[in-house]
Design brief:
The protein has 68 residues and is an alpha/beta fold. Helices cover 41% and strands 16% of the residues. Helix 2 links the parallel strand 2 and strand 3. 13% of the residues are buried.
Length: 68
């Protein structure tokens, strides 16, 4: 049995347009069946709310996700 043992990392979007583009990209990348998606907090935790929002959206779509 083949197991995908990799994750895909995202940086949280800063604009509504960026969020839409990320949703499209994430939909395409989900077809690769990664173990989980991760979303960075940025330098010094500069994107904490955007990271949380993105992780919660990914989880709501039914995928495993982790902030870091």
């Amino acid at each position: 049995m083949e197991t995908n043992n990799f994750s895909i990392e995202f940086y949280p979007p800063k604009t509504a347009e960026g969020a839409d583009k990320l949703r499209i990209a994430r939909g395409k990348l989900a077809a690769l069946n990664p173990k989980y998606f991760s979303v960075t907090f940025g330098a010094g935790g500069s994107t904490q709310q955007g990271t949380l929002d993105t992780v919660l959206e990914i989880v709501a779509e039914g995928h495993a996700a982790a902030p870091h």
